[in-house]
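A common beginner's mistake is to predict each chain separately and then try to dock the pieces by hand. The better habit, illustrated here, is to supply every component at once so that their relative placement is modeled jointly.
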Amino acid sequence: MRYLVSVIDDKSNPGSTDRQPAISAFNERLIAEGYWVFSGGLADTDAATVIDNRGEQAVFSDGPFVESKEYLAGVWVWEAPDLDVALKLAAEASKVCDRKIEVRPFQ
Amino acid sequence: MSDVEEAITRAHHDEWARVVAALTRRFGDLDIAEEAAAEAFTTAVERWPADGLPPNPGAWLTTTANHKAIDRIRRENKRDDKHREAQMLHDNTPLEPLGAIDDDRLRLIFTCCHPALAVEARVALTLRMVGGLTVPEIARAFLVQGTTMERRITRAKAKIKAARIPYRMPSAEDLPARVSGVLAVLFLVFNEGYLASGPDTDPVRHDLTTEAIRLTRLIRTLLPQDGEVAGLLALMLLTEARRPARVSAGGELVPLAEQDRGAWDAELIAEGHRLVRERLTAAAAGVAPGRYQILAAINAVHTSARDIRDTDWSQVLALYDQLVRLDPSPIIALNRAIAVAELDGPEVALAIVDRLAEALAGYHAYHATRADLLRRLGQSQQSRPAYDRAIELAGNTGETAYLTRRRDQLH
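With all components supplied together, the output reads:
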């Protein structure tokens, strides 16, 4: 079962910025244990562009699709046998990243 | 009720959870299990009166439900078998000895009380899948529309499938936390029955307290070594034992001090006391008791006193002190203050209660306790607004009636 694991940061109360070494070590463990499928940290939401091409022509707008205090700071994709396994890893990930984590299954 | 009707009711009580649990394990799908179990019981209602009781009702129900489930899967497989297969619940873990009894019903309970589900979904799902209550019954119990409750249960089942919440025993390491999650759900059901909320509800919902006790008994059978399970069961029994004396003929809640102790249920008290003694023996052997065990012990002290004046308040206070160390919540501190009032007088207790003002400003029992202490100190002027606030916040009809009478008796 694949899960999208989102790292959520808070603009008014951001997590600490020195987490990278711990995250790298955690990633290595995820790879070694066979859970890791993909991971990546994201640039600031200011760098996002939304494209809407449902009409006559494509409309580009600067910024994320939704402005909010909380935003997506990074993602993982994990392969885990069930939600209990994913939640246990996510609890560790939250400590490692010093941020909230959302776990959402793929269809 | 005829013998057959009685047998069906008994079978429903005894076998529902077992049938649903066994089918969930076999077919990996809560929906199929629930529907097939319901159909099997409907068939029993139709057939048993004419055919007579099967020699083993449980086995008959499981077999019938199995057939119903297979029929449904065959029907649906014609439509979209790939899809269905992909959505089956799986148990990937090899069977390992866990120290606890691995019963399908326990798996079912742990799945229904999974921490990834919202609390109200856990309650609803547990009452439906484990308790066998119908959706309209659960909706009535929690004062919501039937369609709302149906949606809540459907959504919870969909999440279990989509997120693959496992159908298995938690690991030994997670077991205490998961058991405590299950007990929290059962305690919530019990409390909703014990102090029912809502302006049009009876003050005590006997159906809910009974159901909570029945399910806690089931867990006790499945996890006989767990001290907190025993503690919660004892707590519920000792609370339920006082039910006959708890509401006056006029529908008013009767406080502990004024209850007719002769009306208490001696049998439930004896059973509760046995459980508390069992846990005291364990505590003497060095097993630290959890909060339900301590709460049960406090209730055991109360139910041991033949008259309110015989209550061993220093024992009650010692237990609250122990509880505060375990759970330093303001609600526990408030209840502890009530014992302090009996030992050291209402003035000392009031000083403690006043320190909780900020944390408990929205809690009716805080204002009710203050009102009572002020009344005992002869400070009617201050007592009255405290009663007003408590009445405003109390959701229970019997409690509102009691508090109103007390307020109106102030000089």
